[in-house]
Write a structure and sequence with these properties.
The complex is a heterodimer of chains A (about 450) and B (about 200).
Chain A (H helix, E strand, L loop, with lengths): L1 H19 L4 H20 L3 H8 L1 H4 L2 H4 L14 H19 L2 H12 L4 H16 L4 H19 L3 H16 L7 H10 L3 H31 L21 H19 L1 H4 L3 H16 L3 H7 L2 H19 L2 H12 L4 H18 L2 H19 L3 H15 L8 H12 L6 H27 L1
Chain B lengths: L4 E6 L5 H12 L2 E3 L2 H10 L3 H5 L13 E2 L2 E2 L2 H18 L4 E4 L3 H4 L6 E7 L2 H12 L3 H22 L12 E4 H4 L1 H16 L3
Parallel strand pairs in B: 1-5, 1-6, 2-5, 6-7
Antiparallel strand pairs in B: 3-4
Helix pairs in contact in B: 1-9, 6-7
Classes of the chains: A mainly alpha (about 450), B alpha/beta (about 200).
Chain lengths: ~450, ~200
């Protein structure tokens, strides 16, 4: 009882502190993790087993952590080291690509391809944002896309705000399509034993349908606000996309590593390579290619996010070990009357609304044990709930400026460059699109699975 | 001292802004107040009115987030935009008078900085606001309290030292006791002594 109460108090305190944004969130989760170990597992449960299960270190030293010969299996609770190692590997690869100018080059190349016309830039950048976010974290995608958008807007005299807002939305949407697109997906995938193919053929299909719908929606509602009425003679602009490449050899090699990462991810169900080993391989290759720039790449890796994950998994482990999440699952089962249709709707909209206001990563991590329990007790197919949870958390995050990390980064870049986007402006632009995609997703889930 | 930067923090209704205007005139220096943001907007080719909404306002406690050092708070970003601009101007060797904007903290590493904080008795400040802004007494009282609260929160968001804490400034003076012109004289005299212009 004491352990359960402490687990809930620590979890709620962690959420409040994350929302308040006064203390860096990795410090919050790590401190809460220490409190969980002391008060929940130690004083409350007197259980060394619970500590070991949550820290989950042994798992790293098993062969199946790196290579799975049969079907991917569900991992136990606690710290999801596969997620952490994979994300670290991807971060290193992305920093390597950024160092050689890959992202700026890609944006400039596409802008040139559409002859620097604002509306075609608006549309192609939405698609680019979605496609890149399928494989690369949406923070990095928006970091570069938003910066280049502002640069182009200044040059070509168009309003960058609608373009950045739609890039943010499409980054979150693209991230929902794959197992490696958004942190909630990688946690769902590795925790519940799903593959890249499982994600792309389920959540990916829904994301593709939604992308077509939102591109049309954004084109109809925003195209007029992009133009400022000022005409620019594009032929007079001397822009050479290849000039942004800082290291030609490194550029080619980094691009090859990226292609290799995509191939390894797409085929990981067939090859048996887990996301953990893929993360290690691409990190090692990036180190080799970076040569003397290794330190420069390493310094830019967002280690705080990795620490945030570690702390978070321990705190959620506290809720799991004390069976609090089973109570939450029971509650959802009761209010839905055991009806699968209602249960799916609750998971989708609850995830979306919660993710619109709070960080979707802790939310997803908390909900995984809940849907696992629901599947076991109420008999709802686990995979259907997994896709629902992934879509709900990834898409719901688009509705407000603080819902997802990509939103914060996009808004911050716009603001720092003199284009502050108010909450009202943001929500009026993107909340309707969020609702549209959630309705499309709900229809797809009901039609396909139920 | 070749470079002279005078930062003037102020309580609402204390006449700190008027003192800054007069001081800038006497010293022949450029004055930065709200026009700082206008200059930035012009420089960045963006709409000033969009930025002005967030000038000298504190970061909201909730509804903002920070990711990889990037904040979604416009108040935070626009304050930093001004701080960077002030640092740039100071680094280029420019001499100026600046009102508010945490300048005494932002520019503390510049040798030529002289930092002033102007306060006033509450009754005098209320009377001044009634006269200058044409408000009723209750409106003036609530405006004084609201603006002071906002300025304090804004300042303390960006500075280690507290707003109005005398340890943070070269001079803190009560304009109600001296009047605006005498306050300007006193500050000018202090500046002359500091810079060696007797």
């Amino acid at each position: 009882m004491f352990a359960g109460i402490m687990a809930v108090i620590i979890f709620l305190a962690m959420f409040v502190l994350i929302v308040m944004d006064k203390i860096e969130r990795h410090i919050v989760t790590l401190a809460c993790a220490v409190l969980t170990i002391i008060f929940v597992f130690g004083i409350g449960m007197h259980s060394l087993t619970a500590i070991n299960e949550t820290l989950n270190v042994k798992n790293i030293f098993t062969a199946s952590f790196w290579y799975q010969s049969g079907e991917a299996s569900e991992s136990a609770g606690g710290i999801n080291w596969a997620t952490i190692i994979f994300i670290a590997g991807m971060m290193i690869m992305v920093e390597g690509m950024a160092r050689v100018g890959f992202f700026r080059w890609l944006c400039m190349k596409i802008a040139k391809w559409v002859h620097y016309k604002p509306v075609p830039i608006f549309i192609t950048f939405m698609v680019l944002s979605s496609v890149l976010s399928m494989f690369i974290d949406s923070i990095t995608v928006i970091l570069f896309l938003a910066a280049v958008t502002i640069e182009l807007a200044q040059m070509l005299k168009f309003n960058p705000v609608p373009v950045i807002l739609t890039e943010i939305f499409c980054a979150n949407l693209g991230g929902s399509a794959t197992m490696c697109g958004d942190p909630p997906n990688i946690i769902i995938g590795t925790s519940l034993g799903y593959t890249f193919t499982d994600f792309i053929t389920n959540a990916g299909v829904i994301a593709a349908i939604s992308l077509v719908a939102v591109v049309i929606y954004f084109y109809l509602t925003m195209r007029k606000s992009i133009k400022t009425g000022e005409e620019v003679d594009v032929s007079a602009l001397n822009i050479d996309p290849s000039s942004v490449i800082t290291d030609k050899k490194g550029f080619i090699l980094s691009s090859l590593i990226f292609i290799l990462a995509v191939v390894l991810l797409v085929t990981h169900a067939q090859t048996g390579l887990t996301v953990a080993i893929i993360g290690v391989v691409i990190a090692v290759l990036t180190f080799i290619v970076s040569g003397k720039h290794i330190l420069e790449v390493l310094k830019k890796v967002d280690y705080k996010t990795l620490l945030f994950f570690i702390g978070l998994f321990v705190v959620v482990g506290g809720l799991e070990q004390t069976k609090i999440l089973e109570l939450l699952a029971k509650f959802i089962e009761n209010i839905s009357g055991g009806n699968t249709v209602v249960m799916i709707a609750i998971i989708l909209w609850l995830s979306a609304i919660a993710s619109a206001f709070i960080d979707n990563i802790p939310f997803a991590a908390t909900m995984i044990p809940v849907i696992r329990t629901l599947s076991a007790t109420a008999g709802v197919p686990l995979d259907v709930m997994a896709w629902t949870l992934a879509i709900g958390t990834d898409i719901g995050g688009s509705a407000t400026p603080i819902g997802a990390s990509a939103n914060v980064v996009g808004i911050a870049i716009a603001s720092k460059n003199g284009y502050p986007v108010s909450w009202k402006k943001y929500c009026l632009s993107l909340a309707p699109a969020t609702v549209i995609v959630l309705l499309i997703s709900m229809a797809c889930i009901y039609l396909r699975y139920l | 001292m070749s470079q002279l930067i005078v930062s003037i923090g102020r309580e609402y209704g204390s006449g700190g802004h008027e003192i800054a205007v007069k001081l800038a005139e006497r010293l022949g220096l450029k004055l930065y107040d709200r026009n700082l943001l206008e200059e930035i907007a012009k420089h960045k080719n963006v709409d000033y009115s969009e930025l002005a909404k967030y000038d000298e306002t504190p970061k909201k406690e909730i509804l903002t987030r920070t990711v990889r050092g990037l904040s979604s708070s416009h108040e935070h970003n626009i304050a930093n935009m001004q701080f960077d601009y002030l640092r740039k101007k100071a680094s280029e060797g420019e001499s100026f008078v600046v009102v508010g904007r945490c300048a005494e903290s932002v520019l503390k590493d510049f040798e030529g900085l002289i930092s002033i904080f102007v306060l006033g008795d509450i009754e005098c400040r209320v009377q001044r606001i009634i006269k200058v802004r044409g408000m009723t007494e209750s409106e003036a009282r609530s405006a004084v309290s609201r603006h002071d609260r906002t300025r304090k929160a804004y300042h303390n968001d960006h500075s280690r030292m507290k707003w109005g804490d005398s340890r943070n400034y070269d001079i803190t003076l009560n304009s109600s006791k001296l009047g605006i012109d005498n306050a300007v004289d006193l500050i000018e005299d202090y500046i002359n002594k500091r810079t060696g212009n007797k």
